[in-house]
Specification:
Helix 3 crosses helix 8 and helix 6 packs across helix 8. The protein has one domain. The relative contact order is 0.15. Helices cover about 75% and strands about 0% of the residues. It is mainly α and about 130 residues long.
């Protein structure tokens, strides 16, 4: 199946929920976070959870994670997000951006990567600690 660029852009937008997180005082980065990153991460939630669980299993950390308190879990997960797994999680987000969004991401990748990592960690932690 060959999808033209315009149709692909439309399909990417259709996948996202409108979270209605607009704030008139938001910076350009905050607006991007609320209008692009958060809806993508919500869409990718089950994949994020499965990815963390798979990584914990691969590194044989499931038991340690399961018996840890919330602070220890957060520390363990932050450790996971320093290696190649970090890039994998960022890629799951960036891969669902439109071209214009991706260009904005490239110009602001340092800040946006930090935000993506923080939101991904919180998303997984809220699932396993609730």
């Amino acid at each position: 199946m060959n999808i033209d660029t315009n149709r692909k852009e439309e399909l990417l937008l259709e996948l996202r929920a409108d979270l209605k997180l607009k704030n008139d005082n938001s910076t350009e980065i905050e607006t991007f976070q609320n209008e692009v990153l958060r809806p993508i991460l919500k869409f990718q939630h089950s994949l994020i959870v499965q990815s963390f669980e798979s990584e914990l299993k691969k590194l044989k950390l499931q038991e340690r994670f399961a018996t840890s308190n919330d602070q220890q879990k957060k520390t363990l997960l932050k450790g996971l997000m320093k290696g190649t797994f970090r890039g994998f999680m960022i890629g799951q987000t960036v891969g669902l951006m439109q071209l214009e969004e991706f260009n904005f991401y490239l110009k602001n990748s340092t800040d946006l990567d930090k935000r993506i990592v923080a939101m991904v960690l919180e998303r997984f932690l809220s699932t396993v600690t609730s």
